[in-house]
């Protein structure tokens, strides 16, 4: 049996459009930009936050007070919104395992993009806001179960 090339293309297009709802895509992408950091270290906070253009709207200087990078791949993070997490109510899920994190805290900042951060490494359970199985908000890191 021979499969026509156009049938393969059609199947690939259908597979690519299945899964993530369109209204979640921008929120998920923002979450990844702000919190996915498999290779971010505690000495790279200033550079990462500046390069990713992470800001805090509604503040006088535009500098975000705290930003946390999760040192894991996006698939390991996504499972927290399903079998890898425990529901906490209000669409929040606490991870069943600890994740290595880099937490960047604002030290000084005249105005964005001149914000200065100090990074700290830790390993914690994380709490994520999820929408239909997709992480869209980092809520907190918890030291103890």
From TrEMBL:
It holds the Pfam family RnaseA. It is found in: Secreted. Residues 24-142 form the Ribonuclease A-domain domain. One of its GO terms (biological process) is angiogenesis. Keywords: Disulfide bond, Endonuclease, Hydrolase, Nuclease, Secreted, Signal. Transmembrane segments: none annotated. Belongs to the pancreatic ribonuclease family. PANTHER family: ANGIOGENIN-RELATED (PTHR11437:SF10), RIBONUCLEASE (PTHR11437). This is Ribonuclease like 2. The lineage of its organism: Eukaryota, Metazoa, Chordata, Craniata, Vertebrata.
């Amino acid at each position: 049996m021979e499969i026509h090339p156009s049938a393969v293309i059609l199947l690939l297009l259908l597979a690519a459009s299945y899964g993530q709802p369109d209204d979640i895509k921008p929120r998920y992408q923002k979450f990844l930009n702000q919190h996915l950091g498999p290779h971010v270290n505690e000495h790279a906070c200033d550079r990462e936050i500046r390069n990713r253009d992470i800001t805090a709207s509604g503040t006088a200087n535009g500098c975000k007070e705290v930003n946390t990078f999760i040192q894991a791949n996006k698939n390991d993070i996504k499972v927290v919104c399903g079998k890898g997490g425990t529901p906490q109510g209000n669409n929040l899920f606490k991870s069943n395992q600890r994740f290595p994190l880099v937490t960047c805290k604002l030290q000084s900042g005249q105005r964005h993009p001149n914000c200065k951060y100090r990074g700290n490494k830790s390993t914690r359970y994380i709490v994520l806001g999820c929408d239909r199985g997709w992480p869209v908000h980092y809520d907190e890191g918890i030291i103890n179960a």
